[in-house]
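Supplementary Methods S3. Input chains for the assembly prediction are listed below.
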Amino acid sequence: MTGYDGWILLTASLVGLTCGLVGSLLILRRMAMMADAISHSVLLGIVVAYLVTRELSGVHMLIGAAAAGLLTAVLVQWLHQLGVRQEASIGIVFTTLFAIGVVLIATKVGNAHLDVQHALMGEIAFIPWETVRVPGIGDIPEAVLMLLIVLAVVGGLILALYKEWKITSFDPALAAALGLPVAFMHHLFMAMVSVTAVASFDAVGAILVIAMLITPAAAAYLWTDRLSVMLLLSGLFGVASACAGYAVAWLIDTSISGSMAFATGVLFLVSSLAAPRHGVLARRLRARRAGAAPSRAQRTTGA
Amino acid sequence: MDATRQVGVADKERLDAGREPALRVTGLAAAYRRNRVLEDVTFEILPGTLTAIVGPNGAGKSTLLKTLLDLHPRLSGEVRFFGTTYRNAKRRVGYVPQRGSVDWDFPTDALDVVMMGLYGQIGWLRRPGRRHRELAMAALEKMGMGAYAKRQISELSGGQQQRVFLARALVQDADLYLLDEPLAGVDAATEQAIMELLKTLRSNGKTVMVVHHDLQTVQDCFDHVLLLNRSVIAHGPTAEVFTAEHIGRTYGGLLRGWEKVTG
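Predicted structure tokens for the full assembly:
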């Protein structure tokens, strides 16, 4: 294996791991739709960050993305309070913010620096060429550096506030009654989703990052009854689908990001069939012995 | 049972003498959007009492609990727990939300849910330790759920889930408990276990408020009753307040046969 493939695999794995961790909490907080929203509205954050600083560097993009993610969360909540249904508010907010981003790109900075195609689909194949010099380590791809920083921040926050994430996800009313800052944690989490989305942008783009956020976590949910195990599995599934996707793309010479998202789908399908307790097969077996209640697999797939 | 009852009464008298109410609510109002659900709600809860909050659907019973705990915005009025704000008194207040308010498919077990009651005390960045696990286990055993500690919560029956919720409130070791419909949709054994628990809490000098839907059991189980329909219709000792006339006014004539209920 060449260094080039190594960097791509490392990038893909970091995307899978970070998205898998964040995605688990997204699903348990019943906010999968917010992943969709934020992955699109961060585009506006990136464009505005570029307009302000005239630079396309990692830090500015992360700050812009976090701000756009927070703006999305706040606007969705505001519309919801005005009486618009939750899903409708999400749909209104992110398409509007995304559209503003697209318009800005097309008018002001549409030349060479940013393009919609790249933002939507990503281009992992270019990543090894855009390097930065890190003192003591040498040249590493900028996307890898950014992903490492985001993984450290997001992973650190999940670990440090593990029990707070658990209680605010499971029973926000009790969490608030105990005095935990539920609204702050919600917004912090939105910021975490945003920086994860933007760090994964270069690799997989705005659309497929949704697959990386939701699908491995949904699969992990079927395999375990413990939150810690679900987080681990979800991260692992993310890495596995990223690597498998790259292998498929290399074998049949097709889109890398597309293959990675496809791999997450296959992984979920296998999980929904074979998972030990909540899978279809296990349920069939149990149902043969006794009358069975509707399973998680059914609810997760919305059947 | 009689012995504990007597201790309870003695405790109550001791606590009543010169102590401020466990909860004082004055002129409370709350709304959902433009829809006012609570208007000028005023009452006082004495320490060591067991109060049923009774009223028709949409009377604002759950909203009242949530508004007291700052979980729902208060439009006006004042709420004092043990003479201070909820913020300052929250360690002394235990809340049991409706069972249906959480996702029972969440990947966790019964013991873990009970331990959540301790998260406020454990503090930021710390992990629950062995002591917390033992406290949670003891609370589960008190609710007759010791054998289910490691059970995934979706595998528990409705009654068992409710017991887990009560164990979680117990572990908080509060002085005032607010319970939202703890007896809704539970089996007879659980109902009995919960009523025993509430009476034991009262005997230990705790104050308990329960949103309750079953008029038949009010007289047997609760020493005080608060009849609520957007505002307080009547409030006081059950024997005095739980009358046909008051119930009729609370339910606005919706209820037939309540004369029979109150004898």
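Residues 49 and 68 of chain B are 18 Å apart (CA to CA). The two ends of chain B are 25 Å apart (CA to CA).
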